[in-house]
Every structure is written in structure tokens, then in C-alpha cells.
Amino acid sequence: MNPSLIISRYHLPGTEYFNGMRAAMPLETLAGYAESYRRATLYGPNLRNEMDVPLSGSHEYSPFGAGIVERIREFPEEAHHLTGRWQRALVASPATAILGLGSASVSRDEVIRAEAADVIMQGKAKFFLETAGVSATPLCFRSYLTKDQLEALDRLDNSRRKNQARIWRALNFAEAVKAIACNFGFINIEDAQGRDLPLIFGVLECLAGECAIWSDDKQGTGVITAAGFLSWMKVTNRKPENCRGIILGAGAGAMGVYDELVNHGILPENILVTDSKGVLHEGRADVEDDEYKRRMRHGIKEGAELEEFARGADFVVNLGAKESLTDDLARTEIIARALAPNPLFAPMTNPEPGVTPDMLAAVRPDAHYGSGNQQYINTFNNFTAFGQIGAGVLMSMAGAVTPGMTKAAALGISRVAEMDPRFGKNHLVPKATDIRLIEHEAGSVARAAARDGVSLRTGKLPTSAQLERFDAEISEMVRFRTAFVQNHRDEADARGRKYFEMRYPDRFAPFYLSDEREGEGRPEYYVPPEIERTEFEHLARQLALKEERWQRLLLEDGRLHPKALTTVLNELKPATRGESEQAKIAYRELCVIVNIATVCPALGLALALRRTRVRPENAEKKGPTVFHREAILSVVLREVPEARKAIYSSFHSIPEIGHYNVGK
């Protein structure tokens, strides 16, 4: 045995963001990061264009495609109908505000390494297709500065240099998007700094009437939050004109939420917004050059204080940094306790909200919770908004996104949530994949576009007869799109399994947590992680596993069988069947082992093998799980210290073991 052997486990990146949250990282979250990385390395982004009907080369390329070329040259306006523009969306990012993580790295020549945002843009494009059947192209843009611009920057001090470089990069990005806009009907500006958006939209305003420009960070966040507000107000019998609350943060997301709340009837003087310097009020002269902050200070008198405004307020939304809530938890608790009965508390920072539902319930059990994190209830994430809004834009051929369209989207989302039997405190918004959103969100957006006069199908001043025909056309489009999306999802599940079987024939061994999900949902993985024998043996001996226990898992050449993990995990599943307390404990134990296997595959396999030795007759004496053995628990917490909370909160009578360094 080699005691100095380094165990392969997933380590969080050594960035400021992750270094600040290591000690509090739950095992489930760490496993999520690990599986995300493994999936990307296993099969890449997995985003491909597909044809809806077979190719007819002579008609779609040469020679007969020349007839379409000449027709568009003679009648340019027919390009709207004869090209794929109104079936395509663009997801464009300058990578200056990726999720809540900040900008990508900046090189010495002031170039943003925009590819850091690519995985999120790929995810956006997949959500377009999965939720609404929209074909989207994800593109990240590096904005190069000219030689003259770089020389000009060298003459500025550091703060002015950074600001001027930021402005030039934003303008360069906007010009690049403008140059390719003729290929798309819907353009989603994604992960751009809030203060850059007015610059970007200023350049792109010339496209009005030709295609719809949208900011998911601003408008998308506004729509989904407004939808959650509508449901919350219905559940708590509130009227928008009587609601009063606080928005922490004053960036793009905050501006989007502010606009949509006002759009739905909440009065500006009833919304207090803060930035890093404090409350935005009418006496704040330092925000004159910020278009968003100037608007959000409206109606708030000079001298207004956050704590005073919070007394009896109805809602708090955090769209700044999670530290706005977590840096002073005592102050956050005071604010939460001061709110009116049944308030809405929405920590919206992404990917980490800072405050969990359990934390809020401990202080205000009557409060309604919402965040952008998919792990928690009431996911107020803009992926529920943008796919369907894009579909509505493309179906109506809308040359802009109007307040009427975003209002229709929020109402549609809330309407679908209300259709669910679970509608209430813990179900204020539907899942993004709820197929009814195509009718109630996308269809409503398309109809609002015609009534607002921005649809190229109906023109600026449609008659009642035109609107009636248009409504019928949209109903048919919605019917087709719903069927298309459902068929696509069904085929994608089947293709996914087939893809892995073909790509990794020797390693394909999907694992489902329970038999009920087998063949129906998606497995925890299709391809088990690779496990080195030397690493596994090192850990197995520390868990007191004799060598004969794993001999059956070895290949002739001495390597561990690539399907070993699935084989052993499946052997644990029979103990999880049934409704007995013992079966429930066994299921929770299996879930923890699977998460540990995601983070540290060799340890997960060793634990699964060790688990098969925990017999019912020994349960009362030694405890019902492998984690009740102190020697085993010591190894687990040394290698995966993040598992501590999951283990101690899931099982009773676990032996006390000292803390290990999570930042290992």
C-alpha cells in the first residue's frame, strides 16, 4: 500500500469565487460540478443542427436554388419568407458578466477571452430547442482593439483605461452582432455587463423592424420574476398597486425586474433599489450618467433608509451579489422579520443565492421563496422565459420585443403554474419544460406582437379581420410546435441512449437510482467514470475490504472492468425497495454513495462494495449504513470532506469525527 498515493477526486477551481465557498459546499452541489465537468469531457457540448425533412440537394443548393437567389435579389423583402431567418435565433455574448461570476479573463491587449462563456451559451441554445423548438446558434465574441485604441489607452490612468476599454469592447461587440443580424429573427444578448447594455442596444436600435433584440439578463429576468410575483400575489390575495418592496442591486437584472414590476402595476415610489453605495434616491447626483439608476431612483425621497423601508414591506429581491445578504446575516434576518405577513423573499443571484429555503423558513416560515437555482423550489430563472419568447417572436415575425409582449409572457407563465394541482407557496412557476408554455407563453407573445403593431405578418396597424386570421394562424403554429417539441424530446432521449451505446460500447452502463425510473427517466449517468485499480485498491484496503471482494471486477489484463461501478451499485438497489424505514435509509445511503462516486469514483466503488457487507442482523449492533463504521467514516471525510453535512443530516447515530479541511 502506498500511503502517499494521491486520490483522484474532483477539485473545485482555485478561483476567488470557489475559494470563498469551499467550507460550505454541500456534497450534492460538489457532485453537480463534478458531473458537469465529466459530461463536458466525455462527449463535449453535444449541440448539433438537424434537418426536419430530408435534403433535396438540387432544390436547396444547386442548380435550382439559383432561382431563390435571383428572386431575393429582385424582391429583397421576400427574404423574410424564403430564408431560414425567422426560424433561427442567435445567442450572442461578449462574456463580460457570465452568470454571477463576473467577466472572462482579459489579456494584456484588452481582449476578453470570451470562450469562458461558451458553455453557458451552449446551454442557452439547448434550452431554446428543448423548451420551445427554436433553433439557436451560440456565439461568443472577442472584441479586438485597434492599434490606435491601444495607444490611446496607454495615455490614460488605470481606472480611465479600464472604463474606456470596456466602452470600446461593448461597441465592437455590438457592431459585430449588427453585421450578422440579417441571418436571425431573434437575437439574445447574453452575459453582458448591465452598464454596457445601453451602449449595445444603442448600436443595435437600427435593426428595429428587421429582427427582435432581447437581453435575457435584463428582460428575461424581469419576465420570470414578474411571473413569480403574479402567482405570489394571487396566492396571498395582494394587489400590485398596494405592494411595496426592495430590490438589492442595480444592474441589468434589477432594471429588468423593476421595469416588469412597474409594467404589471407596482408603483415606482413603492420600489426601493440599492447599489453598492446605498439607496437610490432622488438626491443621488452620482448616478446621472447611468440610465438605469436614474430611472430606478424615481419616487424615492432623499434620506430613505433600507431598514425603515423594509418595515411592513411585501417583498425583497436580491439581484446584486449574494454577499448583499450573507455578509451580515443578522441584518438580513432583521429585514426578513420586518416584512409584512406572507412576504416574497427572492435571493436571485446565480448560481448561488446565498440564502436557502431552509434558512428562510427558520426565520420566516410564512415567507414565499424564489431563486434562480434549479435545486430549490420556485425556480425564478430566465430559461423559463427566453425560449418561449423567442418562439413567439419568430412565429409572429416580430421586429421588436414590446412591454406588451413581456407582460403577456409573464401572465402566460403564471397561468401555466396555476393549472398545476401543486399551485401555491412551493409552486409559483412551472418548470421550463412544461409543454403548455408553448401555447400560453409563446402563443400569447406572438398575439401581443400583432396587437402592438410589430409583427411583419400583420403590419403596424392591423385590422380586426387581420388579427382574427392571425390568431387562427398562431393557433395552428402552436399546435404544430407543441407536437414538434414533444416529438423532439422523445427522440432526443432515444438518440441519447443510442449515442452512448455507439460512442462508448465497452463502457456503456447506465445507472438509475430506482427501478421505477429504469427506462423512463434519464439515468444518473450513461457511462460510468473511469477508475484506476491502484487508486481503488489503496482506498479499498483502508475500508478493510479483502482482495477477493473485488476480484470478480477485474479484466484479464488486471484493469478494473469499466462497468464495475454500475454493477456494484445495482447490487445495492434491492435493499432500497419497499416502504420500510430500513429501505428508506438504504435509499438515502445509496444516494450519498452515488454523489461520492461522482466526486471520487474510486472511493464510491469501494464504499458500494463495503456496503454489500452491511447485513440486517448487524444493523442494530453497528448501525444500518457503512457510514456508521468509524474507520470507514474517517476515510470518507478525509477524501471527500464535503460529504459531512449530507451524512450527518441523513442518518442518526453517526459517530463523531473531527473536521477535515474542505480546501484539500
Low-confidence parts, pLDDT < 50 over ≥5 residues?
A: none
Q: Biggest β-sheet, characterized?
A: 6 strands, mixed
**Roughly what is the average pLDDT, rounded to an integer?**
90
Q: Please state how the strands of the largest beta sheet are arranged side by side.
A: 7-6-5-8-9-10
Q: What general form does the structure show?
A: globular
Radius of gyration, whole Å: 27 Å
Number of strands: 10
Whole-Å distance between the termini?
21 Å
Q: Percent helix among the residues?
A: 40-55%
Structural class: alpha/beta
Tally the helices. 27
Strand content: 5-15%
How are the SSEs ordered, and which strands pair?
Blueprint: H1 16-19, H2 27-43, H3 57-60, H4 65-74, H5 79-82, E1 88-93, H6 118-132, E2 135-140, H7 147-154, H8 158-180, E3 186-189, H9 197-204, E4 212-215, H10 216-236, E5 245-248, H11 252-263, E6 271-275, E7 278-279, H12 291-296, H13 306-310, E8 315-318, H14 323-326, H15 329-338, E9 344-347, H16 357-363, E10 368-369, H17 383-396, H18 403-419, H19 437-451, H20 464-503, H21 533-542, H22 564-572, H23 581-599, H24 601-611, H25 616-622, H26 630-639, H27 644-650
Helix pairs in contact: 2-23, 6-17, 6-20, 8-9, 10-11, 10-17, 10-18, 17-18, 17-19, 18-19, 19-20, 21-24, 22-24, 23-24
